[in-house]
Amino acid sequence: MLDSYSPIMENTEHVHCLIIGSGPAGYTAAIYAARANLKPVLYQGIQPGGQLTITTEVENYPGYPEGIQGPEMMVDFEKQATRMGADIRFGLATKVDFSVFPRKVQIDEEKWITADSVIIATGASAKWLGLESEQRLNGFGVSACAVCDGFFFRGKEVAIVGAGDTAAEEASYLSKLCSTVHMFIRRDAMRASKVMQERVLNTPNIKVYWNTDTDEILGEKTVNAVRISNNKTGEKKDIPISGFFVAIGHQPNSDIFKEWITMDEAGYIQTVPGTSKTNVEGVFAAGDVQDKIYRQAVTAAGSGCMAALDAERYLSAKGIH
Ligand code: NDP
Questions:
Q1: CA end-to-end span of the chain, whole Å?
Q2: pLDDT of residue 129
Q3: Across 18-37, average pLDDT
Q4: What are the domain boundaries of the chain?
Q5: For ligand 1, what atom is nearest to the CA of residue 167?
Q6: By the 8 A CB rule, do 163 and 190 touch?
């Protein structure tokens, strides 16, 4: 759908390749696009560096044999993109118009950019319970990613809240590392698929608590216990733990694209399998905004690379320079 051509307006900046988002997907797309001479402009969004800036140590990203702090790793990504010639800017995409070509993206509710190609890498945000202690101890025993942080709790007792496929998968993952996994489920049933439920219920060191709410995470500087209550009987209990995992879902950051881009019912952008192509020509998606399964820095970076290569091929096939 290459729709009506909109003449480039005065006071509107035109870019060849616009990247929205600054996690591993966005920066990797910027590195590849810059090296392909697409002169990418990247807008970082509200949280420059993305979700990794709220984690501590990252040990599963290849190339860092000693591990690295999440925020430091994202500074490295940014430096590399800048060194390759990407134009990295602070600013938030607030609106888009994909009915015209070049595509139009509004920044900070004021300035409009027209772009020959657009790479959406706006990521997803973990949902949180909303407890003060959860925010205060985030990165100090509280985590929203068992695969990222489970390793730090080897041989220790941990807890996880949630009852979907993510929680079930993460509880299973943690059960292989930790002595006991306490799993808090707010209803008397799990939402996870049958096979995942069975796996959880048949794992001896996962202890399931039904009808259970998390009232508070306890600890001064790091987590040392959690306070729960049974929402049927009112009974309260403190359980000593070292790590608390929140797995109550993620929210893809895709709201501004809803009108134009095909998404699933949860708001994850749908791409043509094996590519980063969306339903809109010249608009590509990479990273967690289109991935509800893997959600790893390294998979996001890989899909950012795909998006830049797809954009490059698209522009050259169209003869747009
Ligand atoms: P879901 O939305 O499926 O599940 C979220 C869970 O968190 C629900 O059980 C919900 O409880 C619970 N929850 C929500 N808010 C709270 C709260 N405030 N306190 C306590 N519990 C809460 O999210 P997932 O991330 O698990 O999965 C998202 C999608 O990704 C799903 O479609 C899933 O199937 C898919 N997925 C698939 C995988 C695979 O195929 N391997 C792996 C991971 C995810 P309640 O049930 O009471 O609403």
A1: 20
A2: 97
A3: 98
A4: 4-125+250-318, 128-246
A5: 26
A6: yes
Q: At what angle do helices 194-201 and 165-175 cross, to 10 degrees?
A: 30
Q: Choosing from 116, 149, 288, 291, which is the catalytic residue?
A: 149
pLDDT exceeds cutoff 90 at 121? yes
Q: Structure tokens of 304?
A: 């950012």
Q: Is the pLDDT of residue 52 over 90?
A: no
Q: What is the mean pLDDT of residues 8-19?
A: 83
How confident is the model over 170-216, as pLDDT tens digits? 999 999 999 999 999 999 999 999 999 999 999 999 999 999 999 99
Question: CA-to-CA distance for 114 and 102, rounded, in angstroms?
Answer: 6
> What confidence score (pLDDT) does residue 1 get?
43
Mutate to test the pocket of ligand 1, among 147, 166, 291 (most ligand atoms within 8 A of CB): 166
Residue 20 scores a pLDDT above 80? yes
Choosing from 17, 116, 145, 291, the catalytic residue is 145
Token pair belonging to 17: 């390749």
Active-site residue, 145 included: yes
Q: Is 305 known to be catalytic?
A: no
Which overall architecture, per CATH, does domain 4-125+250-318 show? 3-Layer(bba) Sandwich (3.50)
The residue to mutate among 245, 292, 294, having the most atoms of ligand 1 within 8 angstroms of its beta carbon, is 292
Do 128-246 and 4-125+250-318 have the same topology in CATH? yes
State which fold the 128-246 domain adopts: FAD/NAD(P)-binding domain (3.50.50)
Cα distance between residue 155 and residue 99, in whole Å: 55
Peptide bond into 102 cis (omega under 30): yes
> Across the chain, what does the average pLDDT equal?
94
Q: Say how many Å lie between the CA of residue 214 and the centre of ligand 1.
A: 16
282 with 101: CB under 8 angstroms?
Answer: yes
Q: What integer is the mean pLDDT of 248-266?
A: 96
